[in-house]
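Today's session is about reading a structure prediction critically. Students often jump straight to the picture, but the first step is always the sequence itself: look for stretches that repeat, for charged clusters, for runs of hydrophobic residues. Only then move on to the predicted structure, which in these notes is written as discrete structure tokens rather than atom positions. Here is the chain we will use throughout the hour.
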Amino acid sequence: MTKDFLRVWSKSNIQEVDRKIKQAREEINRVDSNGETSNLSNEDIIAKSSHYTELLKNMQLKEEMAQQKARKTWLKSGDANTSFFHKCIRGRWRRNEINVISVEGKELREVEDIKQGVMKYFAELFIDEGWQRPTLEGLSFKTISEEDRRMLIQPFTEEEVKAAVWNCESTKAPGPDGFTFGFIKIEWEVIKADIRDFLMDFHTNGRIVRGSNASFLVLIPKRENPQGIEEYRPISLIGCMYKILAKVLANRLSRVLNTIIGENQSAFIEGRQLVDSVVVANEAIDDVRKRKSRCFVFKIDFEKAYDKVSWSFLDYMMEKMGFDKVWREWIAECLRSNTVSVLLNGSATKEFSMSRGLRQGDPLSPFLFLMVAEALNGLTSATVAKGYLRGVKIGKGELEISHLQFADDTIFMGEATEDNIWMIKCIMRAFELVSGLKVIHELDKIRRNFLWGGVGGGGDKGLWSRVLLEKYGGKGGNWISWMKEGRGIGSPWWKDICKLNTGLGNKDGWLLPNFNLKLGDGTSVKFWLDVWVGEDSLANVFPRLFLLDINKNCSIYDRGQWSDGGWCWRLQWRRPIRAWEEENLQQLIGTINHIKPVRNVKDTWRWRPDNEGKYTTRSAYEQLAKKEESTLMEYKKIWSAQVPSKVSACPWQMLLDRIPTKVNLAKRGTMDNNQAQMAQGLKNYEERLEYGMVHNSMVIVVV
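Below is the predicted structure for this chain, in token form.
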């Protein structure tokens, strides 16, 4: 009821501000008009000054409201920036708007489907598995002192509550209650009694009033043009009443963490620097290099670390660290009383409850997570103490470093032995079983892609062969050397297929030019990246416009809509199109305007050599046979020509791409580093046969 009343009040208040600005301007204009025909009286001058004051006050108020929506906290003062703020608001809305999203492999486009799919995803993510986890009996952890135990549960004071409020950013996005901390600070004397009663009730009964711990879950993109729900970071927008309570509890907890969290952890702890772990890791690696010894460095990251924390394990760790039962019950109430609704494009889904996980945006979450991560420190330290894991010894061998932590990021270091690697795998598996946190397997894919594809997907099979040679003593297979051979050795058919598979296929080969697209509904064809109109992708034809699109990975379906039975293109830009870009835009519109998707029909690729558009082995063979026959005819013409053999050798080398151009010499490794780098830089303009033998100005003169 209060929320509905405030919504009506807010709308009318904004309209009232606009009305007052308009009225003040009209009064100022009226007085100025009177001054043009007669002298102004003192009353008119005073009235004009009063209207100016009213105008400036309301314009400043409107600017502050726009600034809050724009989230530009770095801009504190200056001339009126309302236009700037409104542009920021529109830009932020465009970036954060979700029109299509992939949830668990299923692409969702309709508004209601997106809301239901995203809500279901997070509702299931925050549900505990419900099975009994093993414990860490036998491991000892640091415990807090009796004095700290009493300090944590003592009554709240007005001074610490006010300090917590003033420590919060005034213009941060509000939670479901709609209040910012700027409002709380301004009206502190009016509402502090209500806040005091809320905190006293929590201290006495250990309960949070229903609705006070509600939150909005907003999705913040982790990268440009996100596609799947995994590419968004869930941030919670929490109401002011609970956030004040959480801030007070977090401030108290931060004062004792230094005594219970190991020195390997450098995040969120008073007296420790954020870069401590990085500095120590660099020093350790430098020391190993100076001694010319070997070690391993292994960085791990947890999959949805905050979202998968087991509440029962968190309570278990607090009990092991000596926290009072009252404090543990307070934390449990803060966790189980929360309700969540996902905020999508300004519209909230239905509420759901959590049974595991820590909300990102809750002031308590970073400190609670440190106590969970301390279990990993305890496990690792115990294995080092028993001699099962051997770390890196630096200096005179008196200091041994086995692991360093920064919140949910951990670096393992140690002697480069297989036993050490197996022990780390055992530690991580044990930690997963007790806490619910597991390592991101996406990193395994990155390693695999790097070993098979080299840096930047360059196809460095030699790197993989070195790994095989080191591990198994093998050579990596004869196909590695075959892949490195030139164009004239081995089957050109299979090489063309391999190029396509590694992203190197192009229109100069035999495969891609024999396919063409039959456009259907446009859902599976990339608007910018696929070749669906003309002979090249729109990204290559219109690179400037491609950079301006808000979603460079969009489909054709995303860039239009059906209206009144017809298709209308709907291009979306990060900013308005400039005058010098208009010509490019008109060319793009002219290119695509005659093409219309077809409703309820899937996009299909057609095989050109077959009349029905279906790929068959026979048609592919015939196509390749024609191409190879043509190549053989060229060879015969060269060697049957009535010229000396040394003259025929030149065009023969050209066909095989064996002319010693700088690019080819760099590939063969016959150039020094500087020359090779220069040749590599020529790749975009490559000193190719086409240039050297055809487009060269001297050749033109001779011809």
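Discussion point for the tutorial: DSSP finds 28 helices and 16 strands in the chain.
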